[in-house]
Design brief:
By secondary structure, the protein is an alpha/beta fold. The chain has helices at about 35-45, 65-85, 105-115, 130-135, 150-155, 180-185, 200-210, 220-225, 230-240, 260-265, 315-335, and strands at about 25, 50, 90-95, 120-125, 140-145, 160-165, 170, 195, 215-220, 245-250, 255-260. It has a single domain (about 15-230, about 305-335), classed as Alpha-Beta Barrel (TIM Barrel), CATH 3.20.20.70. Helices cover about 35% and strands about 15% of the residues. Helix 1 (about 35-45) runs parallel beside helix 2, helix 1 (about 35-45) runs parallel beside helix 11 (about 315-335) and helix 7 (about 200-210) crosses helix 11. The protein is globular and about 50 Å long.
Amino acid sequence: MIRPWNATHRDDHLPKALQNLRIPAVGAPLFIISNPDLVIAQCKAGVIGSFPALNARETEGESPLLDTWLIRIKEALDRHNQKNPDTPAASYAVNQIVHRSNTRLQRDIEICAKHEVPVWITSLGAREEVNQAAHSCGGIVLHDIINNMFAHKAIRKGADGLVAVAAGAGGHAGQVSPFALIQEIREWFDGPLLLSGSIATGRAILSARVLGADLAYIGSPFIATDEANADPAYKQMILDSCADDIVLTSLFTGVSGNYLKPSISNAGMDPDNLPDGDASTMNFGAYGSVKPRIWKDIWGCGQGVGMIRAVQSAGGLVAQLAEDYRTRQAMLLAHS
């Protein structure tokens, strides 16, 4: 049965790890940018914080940095929860890039299972063995997709929920309108559904809920936070930009993505005349080795960039989003 949807529906149907958030939102995993400081701040503020496992890079011969990061995150959140039993931190998530070029995948899966990571986000391929590993330690899997066909495939292979990456999302992005994508998925899927794409305000979070998503998946606004591992020039470029400064191209990774035009210009290329990319060149086993380096020199960002107007703490951003969300929600209820 498909549930009736409205902006104030309860979240009792969701897995426990996705419940009791300050606002219905997940901080999207940001390549290179997301780190323990950002994840801890997001979770303490009441939204699910996440990071790509590949962000935890160590030199050859060193102990896995991912193991160290997970210990640090868990201990920090445990301390917070002991001091704040009435307002515990949100769950955290780890993003696994399951593309065949990620030679670390099996090792990282084993580390996440050992630490009983509560939320696993999978990208660039649906893999049954990854879902099984998550379930073996009590975790849930959210798989990101860009169309309805991939959504069906992910659920068939055992994912618990979906991240609908619609047009306008930062970094790797889909090209389907969120109105079409969410409605098509909701015709057959009643499980956890997140929406990604141009969500930078409380109003946008509320709109995602009205449309039929359970949670908003927010990336670009968290780049412009104090805790984010982003170049200060990157953060300033976000503040100086609007939707017209975003270009969609497959050149850099072989997969369509949204990037800041000024960063492309700074790398000596014409953002308005870019050739297509080749998906066969995508390589997450040696990312950062190509010139210009993705995502170090070419900076991803979504079309909601025009609503990002200040660099602030992650907690401050969540508070701002929460205030806007509650205000818009009250206005909607007043007119219902």
